[in-house]
Amino acid sequence: xxxxxxxxxxxxxxxxxxxxxxxxxxxxxxxxxxxxxxxxxxxxxxxxxxxxxxxxxxxxxxxxxxxxxxxxxxxxxxxxxxxxxxxxxxxxxxxxxxxxxxxxxxxxxxxxxxxxxxxxxxxxxxxxxxxxxxxxxxxxxxxxxxxxxxxxxxxxxxxxxxxxxxxxxxxxxxxxxxxxxxxxxxxxxxxxxxxxxxxxxxxxxxxxxxxxxxxxxxxxxxxxxxxxxxxxxxxxxxxxxxxxxxxxxxxxxxxxxxxxxxxxxxxxxxxxxxxxxxxxxxxxxxxxxxxxxxxxxxxxxxxxxxxxxxxxxxxxxxxxxxxxxxxxxxxxxxxxxxxxxxxxxxxxxxxxxxxxxxxxxxxxxxxxxxxxxxxxxxxxxxxxxxxxxxxxxxxxxxxxxxxxxxxxxxxxxxxxxxxxxxxxxxxxxxxxxxxxxxxxxxxxxxxxxxxxxxxxxxxxxxxxxxxxxxxxxxxxxxxxxxxx
Length: 484
Hints:
By secondary structure, the protein is α+β, with helices and mostly antiparallel strands. It folds into three domains: about 5-280, BirA Bifunctional Protein, domain 2 (2-Layer Sandwich); about 295-390, Anticodon-binding domain (Rossmann fold), CATH 3.40.50.800; about 410-480, Translation Initiation Factor IF3. It is about 35% helix and about 25% strand. It is built from 15 helices and 23 strands. α1 (about 5-10) packs parallel to α11 and α3 (about 45-65) crosses α7 (about 175-195).
């Protein structure tokens, strides 16, 4: 019979057998989130919310480096606001939830529970912006939104979710484009440097762009099952919303002009991406920069007389590290083996074992979560070695994910081969493309693959050859994949 520790890990299905089930089991066993009593909603538990807080802290600091300020706009949006931008309301209509009664009375005008805030921000910008001296206006808000989803998965797609949404207004279309690309780069650097997730930054197709946008950019990541996950988007809205909401300013030349606006967002879906990119058969692996606890200390003793000395060293080490790394001491009555499995499943980057032998040697044993490599470290070297080890682990997770993406990315000029790759393999397919919306929809219908992104990085000197589907001269290279 398997012992308790072995059985605990066996409870998680193997990724290769059923990736979707593995994902859901890890989310719930690691106590990241749970289902809410309202269909399609989720409860984010403290451990999951701690990851979100770290994401929020790091991303918010990156925003502020670009002069963005935080604000807050209301949850409820008048129906008339949504109707002002035709493409926008058409794109969101199936997902909008409405409030029609309040205090027992019918409302004079239905109120939308915000699916996004472009309309109410546009209304406010029209009041606040009068002169070119008021520009650029660079705002962000951390909030929740509601989109009435029919099929939901914890973190990846829920009816209510947390995110940030940035909204900016500019004097010219060029300035708006510059800001749109700037925020895309903020998302790319955050994903790769903090979340250790390699991404492809690029432009969305006309079919896939945001409702009401002139141009949409995104970062796309490859999950552990080879599917794509849109992980952050940045939209150049042109003057569409400015004209709908009359956001005008008096320019230096004395002419009244419409502002060019942008919006951009990243959500709790990023936590789902984190799980699916880095996790393994034992559960989560959380990159150190986002981990709620970067190191967990497990005290070890067999005899009661060993306990006092071990406890003393554990307390000493805890005090030494406090404020330098995020540390957790597991003083529960569970066995060391159970604790190892528990914290491995929760994805803590480094485990620190302290037992009688470590007391004698005035050292500790460090164990990496990603490869389980063990390393004894003398106490006087710990404050230097542990942060260095965490950074090594951070980089190793990124390189491992990058190697996985590269080994599961294919190029082909044959549509028959394209169909075989999509049907039989996992990953991305890079093809020559002529930006044909009808062809894109046909490919989706035939293969269930979607055009994820037209990468910013294109071949030097332009693309030579024919579109994989239409045979027309190719204008770019594009990435297709099945996606979440």
